[in-house]
Amino acid sequence: MSDIRELEVALGARRYPIRIGRGLLGEGAALAALVPGRHALVVTDANVAPHYLPHVQSALAGKQLGTVVLPPGEQEKTLARFGEVMAALAALGASRDATIIALGGGVVGDLAGFAAACWMRGVRFVQLPTTLLAMVDSSVGGKTAVDLPQGKNLVGAFHQPAAVVADTATLDTLPARELRAGLAEVVKYGALGDAAFFAWLEEHADALLAREPAVLAEAIARCCAHKAGIVARDETERGERMLLNLGHTFGHAIETEQGYGGLLHGEAVAVGMVLAARLSAQLGRAPAADAGRLATLLTRLGLPTAIPPGLDPDALLARMRLDKKAVSGTLRLIVWRGLGQAEIANDIPDTALLPVLRP
Ligand code: NAD
Ligand code: GLY
Fold first, then answer.
1. Which one of 265, 319, 324, 332 is the catalytic residue?
2. Is residue 143 within 6 Å of ligand 2 at its C-beta?
3. How far from chain centre, in Å, is Cα 83?
4. How far is the first Cα of the chain from the last one, in angstroms, to the nearest whole number?
5. How far is CA 68 from CA 40, 98, 101, 347, in A?
6. Positive or negative, the Cα torsion across 350, 352, 353, 356?
7. Which amino acid residue places its CA nearest to atom 3 of ligand 2?
8. Does 1 have pLDDT greater than 60?
């Protein structure tokens, strides 16, 4: 077993651990300890299950265990699939002390977490993230949701996990495109609040793409520490947590317009961050040179930086209006202030936005 990194999300009197390290899914006794009750339901997907479901099943051999294996992909983060998880919980006879285990990427984590928020008005859940994106972002902080055709994550709840266990060895089987998508969210932390981390990413871009274990573990731990701090200060996104949505209002609009079958979430966030930076530079709120550095790093990491062809700017703007940060119909955007700085703005006129949305 290589080095294990231990962090904590502290929410007043409530707190939960984040464990990061290679081989953690092989620690059967530690996994079993995360399920205090009799019932557990593992939610995973068809790409992840063949590799990692047996670890969890053997760790929980003494429990009454159900399993839901979803088809992979964002298009499955739906109310219909949520209904299937509810039906599986009912079939299991899951009681209030049941634990739901999310084994997979952000799609599985968001959906399983939402199921945990809703079953019997809320049961325990554990995040076992297996994508880089889930390890650095979606498994931490308790945002759970499913998508609607009208917009991303529109139906959901804040429901914190009881623990996050990130076995970084699972990244060995992650497709390269998915690794790169996760790197977009890694870059986000540097871009919005940590210029030194951004410079570190510039220095280690090749090592990250080569999946050097020590460099990946360092990046994951730094992102989790950053997110844990923000979530501790603003659990339900009244203020500071909105900054974690840098590029997301643009990105979510792109994903929704593409019917969740085009760019991956992380790729859409990469494009969204570049659009946010361009908007800020045009408004004189961020140095153009910083916007250039951001686009250069994302490009080096193999990420897209332009809106995919064929998307209508007016349609994208209409999607952006349904963003969850909007208040009383007024769009709120995360405006970039240059490397390591971002702020919330509700004064961006359509006349400034539309040119940025044009290809
Ligand atoms: P994902 O869950 O679709 O996983 C990506 C792909 O990788 C899938 O095809 C999956 O089957 C496969 N996969 C996962 N782990 C694997 C492994 N170890 N080996 C091989 N294949 C593997 O996507 P994602 O990028 O992890 O998550 C994106 C989702 O996360 C979006 O729905 C987004 O909205 C959500 N998200 C939520 C939060 C939050 O705070 N809750 C934050 C960021 C993103
Ligand atoms: N991914 C944004 C958040 O968790 O708030």
1. 265
2. yes
3. 22
4. 48
5. 11, 15, 10, 45
6. positive
7. 244
8. no
Strand pairing of 163-167 and 333-336? unpaired
Q: pLDDT tens digit string along 71-101?
A: 999 999 999 999 999 999 999 999 999 999 9
Copy the structure tokens of residue 4: 């294990």
Residue with CA closest to ligand 1 atom 32: 107
Tokens of 276: 């946010």
Q: How many CB atoms lie within 10 A of CB 14?
A: 10
Same fold, 5-173 and 176-357: no
Whole-prediction pTM value?
0.97
SS3 75: helix
Ligand 1 mean position, distance from CA 266 (Å): 9
Q: Is 143 a catalytic residue?
A: yes
pLDDT of residue 2: 59
Condensed to tens digits (0 to 9), the pLDDT of residues 145-164 reads 999 999 999 999 999 999 99
Q: Can you give the residue ranges of every domain in the chain?
A: 5-173, 176-357
C-beta 265 within 6 A of ligand 2: no
Atom of ligand 2 nearest to the CA of 242: 5
Fold classified for 176-357: Dehydroquinate synthase-like, alpha domain (1.20.1090)
Could you tell me the CA-to-CA distances from 184 to 132, 276, 320 in Å, in that order?
Answer: 10, 14, 20
Angle at 248 between CA 82 and CA 83, to 5 degrees: 5
Helices (H), the chain: 28-32, 49-59, 79-92, 106-118, 132-133, 176-193, 195-209, 213-233, 248-257, 265-282, 288-300, 313-321, 350-357
Burial 231-248 (b: 16+ CB within 10 A, else e): beebbebeeebbbbbbbb
- The minimum-distance atom of ligand 2 relative to the CA of 143 is 4
> For 5-173, CATH number?
3.40.50.1970
Cα–Cα dist 117/320, whole Å: 26
